Amino acid sequence: MAALRRSPTVVVVPSAPLAWQVAAMFSAVKDENGRNLMNSIAIVVPEQVEMPNDFDIVVGTATALESALTLKRPNGFKFDYAVFDEVHDLQTAGEGS
Hints:
- The chain is of the alpha/beta class.
- 24% of the residues lie in helices and 23% in strands.
- It has a five-stranded mixed beta sheet, with helices on both faces.
C-alpha cells in the first residue's frame, strides 16, 4: 500500500542564515532504519529560491516565502502545518533585524 501524500509543512524563520541552518537540520532527520524522513526540502530566502516540485517542507524568511509562494502559485499552497520561529519578529521593520 502506498503512503498517503501529506501537504508540506512551512517553517518561517527570521533570517536567511537561520533558514539554511534549519533546512540542514531537517535534511539530517532519519527514521529508525536510517532512511531520510524528508524526501525534499525547499529553501526560500531573499537571495535564493530552491523549490522542488514535490517538497515535504519549505523553510524560509517571512518576506521571501510570501513572495515566492504567491508568485509560483497564484492560488496559493496548502500546508498541513506552519511553524513560526521568533514570531515577535514578524512585526519588526525588516528581516534579520
